[in-house]
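Late entry, evening session. Most of the bench is empty. Finally got around to the prediction I had been postponing all week. Sequence below, unchanged from the version circulated by S.P.
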Amino acid sequence: MFKKMATFVNEVDINYAIESDPEVDIKLPDSIDTSDNDSIDTSDKEDFPEVEDELEVDVSIFGEIEGLADVTLVVEDRRIPVVKAVLSLASPVFRAMFQSDFKEKNQEEIRLDGKKLDIFVTFLRCIYPDLEEEVTVENVYDIIYLANEYQVSRLLRSSEKVLLVEMEKFEDIEKENCCLEVYHHLAIADTCQLERLKAFCVSIASDACQADRDAAVEVHPVSSDIQRCIEKRVIRKQEIYLADYDALLGSLNHDSICDILKQKLQIVEKAPASFGTPIQNVQTHGGFTFTQVQQKQNKSSVLRGSPVSVSNAKGTTREADVQDLWKMHLRNLRWVYKHTPTDDKLKRQAIYWIRQAQQWFRWNIACAEEFSLLPEIAKHDIKGRYIMKY
């Protein structure tokens, strides 16, 4: 009787009733058994919604329904009945597995370790002729590696087309994360031997700066052959650009180039004598203003020439401005050695400003790489060989 009644009242009410009557000594069970309760109407499903199970991946469409399946593939402990003939026609790897002297030839079940069920089922749907699921940007990054592993050439071609279209979004190397995406696709092309995608990505990568390429290859490593292809293309592009640049300058006569370089060598930005170092002397030289500063070195004071300092309206300059100034001096030097290699006066002026800049303690941090890439003859002239010519 109590059992029947308990199904119609809640446990709180029962506990309250027992506690209010001390003569009643009833021990409630941990849980009330309502298995024989026939009086509760549960026909109204909307009042008692149930959580639906996730739809399972349908693996019966690869030959089981038609009764044609003659082998079972096991992926993540899930059995997938398939037709040997269909897989053999699509993939030379499956054909060798089923027809050659491999251990899988006579097995009724073949376990495929390291595969994901949903991805493998999508792969099968793409290669079954009666299904032929389309390759899209949503599934291509999953199935392309299976297409490569099982050498499904038709699926590889379709995947490459999708990836080429996707890569068109990253033709502009200035786009955010462009270089990372390019190297991601380069890694795919390299692994799967997709030559068209590889060539397209190499072309885009060769427009990126070295720092971006170095960062991208850390995330998406590619083979040394790919890296050499990119480097060769970078060099070749630079050769072409320089030839165009020379052709443009070729339209100017020698005197015009000299006038331009003379003007460049005299255009300098504001640069402080030193960051936190007192100015000792201010001088002018050939129309240029520079400072000499007193710096402590081994407990003795020495005068050292500083880079050019030209006061502006505010009289202040950031450290970045100074580094830009040094790089401008290097650029001017390169122009002189490239376009007026016989003009000793221009060389002397360009070298003078490099030597001034080299006395700064931050020079090696900011400009070491650019200086190392100067022509060797220019570096020798700056350092002085047998005699100090300039």
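Two things to note before I forget:
The CA atoms of residues 174 and 208 lie 8 Å apart.
The chain has a mean pLDDT of 75.
Will write this up properly tomorrow.
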